Amino acid sequence: MTIRFHNARILTMNAGEEIYLGELHVTDSRITYVGPSATPTPAATLAAVEFPATAGADSVIDIDCHGNLLMPGFKNAHAHSGMSMLRSLADDKPLHAWLNEDIFPVEARLTGEDIYWASQLSVLEYLTSGITACFDMYMEQEDVARAMDDMGFRCVQTGGVNDFSKDVRWIDYMYNKYNQPGSLQSYQLGFHAEYTTNMDNLKAIGSVVQKNHAPLYVHACETKEEVEGCLQRYGKTPVAFLDSLGFFDYGGGIYHGVHMSEADYEVMQRRGLYVVTNPGSNTKLSSGIAPITEYLRRGIPVAIGTDGPASNNCLDFFREMFLVTGLAKLREHDASALDAREVLTMATVNGARAMHLSECETLSPGQKADIIMLDLWQPNMQPLNNIAKNIVYSGSKQNICMTMIDGRILYQNGKFANGIDPATIYRKVEEIKRRVIMPAE
Known about the structure:
The protein is α/β, with parallel strands linked by helices. The protein is built from 14 helices and 17 strands. It has helices at residues 95-107, 112-128, 141-151, 169-178, 199-212, 224-234, 238-244, 262-271, 279-284, 292-297, 317-332, 340-354, 387-393, 422-436, and strands at 2-10, 20-27, 30-35, 60-64, 69-72, 74-79, 131-136, 154-158, 185-193, 216-220, 252-256, 274-277, 302-304, 371-374, 400-405, 408-412, 415-416. α2 (112-128) packs across α3 (141-151), α2 crosses α14 (422-436) and α11 (317-332) packs across α12. The N and C termini lie far apart (51 Å).
């Protein structure tokens, strides 16, 4: 099946390419054409986009975008999707008290089936926020993969192994199982954090990295307490310490990266590591403001994540984008510290690269059709002085009128595709909540 989007404003996210009026074609799961319209189209008008019903495999479907914007979907480069079960359960506490007193005890009672349904709840929110892929770290990862597949959602998982979870051999097993061509599911090596993993397990993780010649991802330098603890234990800051074990010999990245040392920056530059900033979660947990402009000055690529819905508590990329630039300006006392267009690159291209989704970076022929449409005919988008800056500074989830993944429209005009049943997901999650979180009631 071929879908022709016409009368569209197009933001390809290719370097140096501005927004233009044109059309985009999707055949099966890939973009086959992006550029000027083959035939003249009328001027954009205020009208709702109509999405036709599913057609046959050989059909050609025309969609008039009425001047709305097509762009690559946002890549949520750090998430714990199964934690939607814990939303607003434990708030207004610092990170380590929040984890040890509230989160870990409840997580110990969750089953794989519980995490399956909680992950699907997060996918509903991803779709409404224009997120077309997530970099997920959580428990019971085969159940997470099943949930994502059943929703048609693209997910890269990474290991969350620590002293309280599965054997380190698990990440080796998953890495070799889920990196298969053509799948919506893939996997990268990782573990939870230095402070939750003893030296024996750290050495075992290092062996898996060396065996697979693979990149590795980990929470690091999120709080001052974490950094001070690592210094006391090993005489090095977290990134420098993990690098001394060979963890970053093949690249990878860190989540958060708020409290950095000169040694940490040097490792990240030398190893080509990504940092995934999570401003919503770091703000809510009062962990600090990441040094985004310093990363950019040193050529360290930055991607954006929401973190989990228990610490954020929402999975809203518009809020994250605004916070990335807003907090950078506050930190540097400079309103010009971080341009909105750079933030859009972090949210799309850099996220895809951090997640090793090389076919999902831009709107270009041959790339996967992971596309979102933004409704520009909303008050918060008018007037159209600068659409890219509107997205970051005034954009909202209300502007997402379509989310397409792998050539399938999964969300459109406030409704989910056939086969996605929000009511069932809400009911299942409520039942699990009453069993796991409120057992005495």
